[in-house]
Structures are given as structure tokens and as C-alpha cells.
Amino acid sequence: MTTRTRTRPLARTLAALALALVATACTGGDGGGDRPDERGQEAAPGTLRVLASSELADMAPVLEAARKATGVTVRPTYAGTLDAVERIASGQAEKEYDAVWLSSNDYLRLRPDTARKITGETPVMASPVALGVRPEVVSRLGWDPAKVTWSQLHRAVADGKLTYGMTDPMRSNSGFSALVSVASGLSGAQSALTERDVTKATPRLKEFFTGQKLTSGSSGWLASAYARRTDVDALVNYESVLLSAPGELTVIRPSDGVVTADYPFTLLTSAGPEAKAAAGRLTTYLRTPDAQRQITETTLRRPVVPGVRPASALARDPRRELPFPGSRKVADGLLDAYDNTLRRPSRTVYVLDTSGSMSGERLERLKTALAELTGDFRDREEVTLMPFGSTVKESEVRTHTVDPASPQAALDAIKGDARKLSAFGGTAIYSSVQEAYRFLGRTPGDTFTSIVLMTDGENTDGDPAAAFDSFYRSLPAAQQRTPVFPILFGDSDRGELDHIASLTGGKLFDANQGSLDGAFEEIRGYQ
Fold it and tell me: Which residues contact 444 (CB under 8 A, 6 or more apart)?
């Protein structure tokens, strides 16, 4: 297993995430029911400011019951687990929160820069990684759901009989846990996952990930995208997420073992005495039999207190806990291998508004954001910059593919193209997105394809919305699976952009609430 030497711009990423999280709180992102963001505010007595995994939004009824019983109010800000780990490592979290509540602390404990910043971990509930498979696919494959192994899953994928969606392991702990599960299952590791185990499993891992047809930065969007697709047979996620997903799924926990999230409520060492006392009251309550019963019935996660029966929807047969990597080097190497070697490559068209209204500071912000984004492009990724004004500026359209043998050449070329962008003309949003679809359709391939649309204004030139709708619906089914991820920026029209995202199965990102580079970075989880 080879680890790339190119380094992610962590400082820039962390700053972007801080701003992007404000947008999530304000727009009610995939977590659903996000509460107002409490970052930067002093906690009132009996209030805990908590940086939490986004799927914990479903704990709202339980936390309201806890407030009535203990007087402790939880003020969550939702984030992806691995993004939250980086905020803890940077020291940002301790300035804004009293505690973190992630799906797992396993990755966090591997890092000295984060392990020393947490204390008092209290597991609250559990949910294993599982596969949710369409019942007709289970029947077609002749599977007994209670006996399916990771090797059987791999074989079905390798034979072209099973496809699936999974969240991005670089940004979501459910994706990372799934990656660890399949690596452990296919390597036969009996103890902490090692580099040798990963190397041994790599050929089978490559085959397994040929079946991944959907990727996502969040479980919520993944479930929505899956509902639109008829070519995807299954989802890989936490058991609780799969059981709550729309539509009928047969939930399979591979019989040779799983990685399980235990959702530990964890104090930051910087928390004050009042916060520590409040956390003690809260966690004591959450582990009472009554609270555990409410948790399992409400969220379909498993109780961690002996004697409390899981919800009736949860299978009772036990599963072996698969070994987590024993070092950060192995964990990061596994993530790197997934990003640059194991997964299908990405192909993205960036449709960039360079109309006259973008002149000055706005264009400079765009150039800076694109230059910084190059540090996040993966090996084998195809990146097209498609600037537009009154029409697509054909002479400025450039495509580069990141060559694993010499990635810096493509990254430098993209930076150079970004520096040359100039602002003039009107704003032809719909016509330009149509051209992006035509461009992708000329050379289809086995890739994750997406379109990122950045505009600072309303559509003034070219085709209207109705023409775009007709164009999109006339596309072949395979092309309709390419989502558009619009970025709200400057004076752009939220209604226009939200419509494009909804029609194409994409997601709207708000750079006005956060930052432009933060929006571009957040979209990376969906590409």
C-alpha cells in the first residue's frame, strides 16, 4: 500500500468547515432539524455546547426528555465525524464547545493531537455497519440475510451482480467504518488492521469498489439519491440509518463481523466545572433503562445497558466486532488508498460564472478558491473548468486529468487556468449547464460524474428554466444520474439554483452563509 505525498491544505479546510457549518445550521442540512448554531457563545448554566455527528439530529426527542428530567439543555452543531476530528485537532473545538458526540472515537484516539483533548467518554448507544439491499436483489442472489459474509458480497460485486452506494470515508464515519469493515473482512484480519492486511486485501478491495455507484458527504443525501436510482441495489451505512431509510430494504450484517459505532458522549478537557457536572447528569440519564428504551425505539440504535431489549426491528443474533486499525498511519493509509486507488475516479465539470458582475473581489475570491481546491483533487480525477458569461466561453474551457505518476502537473495547470479567468458578459446559467451535460455525454465512462455550478446572479441570457427542464428530461437515463451542485454566491437566486439541484438530484450549497472555498470543499464529499 503506497501513501501519496501530496498534502491536503488542512488549515484552509478547517477554516472552510467552520464557515460551512454555519450554513448547515441555517439551512437545515441533511441532518434534519438542525438547531440554531451556538458556536462562539458562552454556555448558560445547564447548557452543553456539543459538536455532534450529523445523524444525531434524530436524538431531539430523547434530548428534550433529558432536559425535562435533568435540566441540561444540549445545543448541537452538526458535522461529519472526520471533519469534527480535524476541528478538535486544530484547537478550534475547545474554543466553541464543551463536548463532542461522534459516532465513534476510534479514529480520534489514534491521533495524539486529539486524544489528549478529550476525557470522560460515555458510550450511549450502538449501531453496526450493515448493507441495506433491495429485497428482490436478495432473492435473485439466493441469499440468507443472516449468513451473508463480506466474501460473498465481494463476489457478487466482482461478478457484476451487486451495486451499492456509500458515504465518503474522508468525510463520514459511516463511510470510514464501512471501509474498515470491508478491509478487515476481506483480509481475514484477526487483530488490529495492519498495512500488511490492507496490502493483502487490496486486489479484492479494488474489485469491491467497482460496485460503488453512489458517493456522498452525508447519509441523508445518499438515501435521497438512492431513491432516485434504479441501477443501485444497496446502501452501505449504519444499521439504524438503513432501517430508517425510505423504501423497503433487507438489512444484512455480514456474519463474519462488523465495525460498530458506540456514540460516546465525550467531554473536551477544556470544559469548565459546570459543563462537566451537566455532562455527568446528562450521561447518567441517557444510560437509564427508560432512556435506553426511548433511544432504541426512536432511533433504531441498540441499547448499551444490559437488560434493555433492542427495538423489535433489530435482529438479536450477535456479530463479531471487526478490528479497527492499530495506528493512525494504517488508518490514513487506508483512506488514501481508497481516495486515490480503490474507488472509481471522478469526473467533474465546474461551470463558473465569469460574467461582468463577477469583476473585482468576487472574481479574485473564485480564483483563490479554485487554486486552494487543487490540493484536494484525487489521482485519476478529470477536472474541467467551463467559464461562462452570455454563453460558455469556449476558448477558455480546459480539461485536466490528475496523473498518479505526476499529479502536480495537472494541479499547476488548473491553478494557471484559474488565474487567467476574466469577467465580462451576461449570465447564461441554464444554457451553460446544458453544455456541461453535453460535454460529459460525449465521452461517457465508468466514473463518478457531477457538475458544480457557481454563479453570483440570476439568469439573464440564453435558455430559460423551462428549456433546461425539457433538455434535462430528454437526456438518456444514464446522463440524468449526473447531479448538479449549485453554489449560492453574491446575488444569485436561491429559487433558481434550488430548482436545478432538485431536478437533477443534486444539493444546494450556500457560500453567502459560509465561504466560497468552504462550499467547494464541502462538495468534494459528493464527487
Answer: 478, 479
Q: Please state, in angstroms and rounded to a whole number, the distance separating the CA atoms of residues 370 and 517.
A: 7
Neighbours of 289 (CB within 10 A): 12
Q: Are residues 386 and 491 in the same domain?
A: yes
C-alpha cell recorded at residue 453: 455550478
Give the model confidence (pLDDT) of 278-316 as tens digits.
999 999 999 999 999 999 999 999 999 999 999 999 999
Q: How many Cα atoms sit within 13 Å of 447 on the Cβ side? A: 24
The reported pTM is: 0.87
Terminal Cα-to-Cα distance of the chain (whole angstroms) = 23
Residue 252's φ and ψ, nearest 5 degrees, are -115, 120
Pair (85, 231) in one structural domain: no
Angle, CA of 311, 75 and 11, to the nearest 5°: 110
Which range of residues forms the domain containing residue 33? 10-125+263-303
* Residue partners of 149: CB distance under 8 A and separation at least 6: 185, 254, 255, 256
Q: What is the 3-state secondary structure (H, E, C) of 283-334?
A: HHHHCCHHHHHHHHHHHCCEECCCCCCCCCCCCCCCCCECCCECCHHHHHHH
Same domain flag for 458 and 400: yes
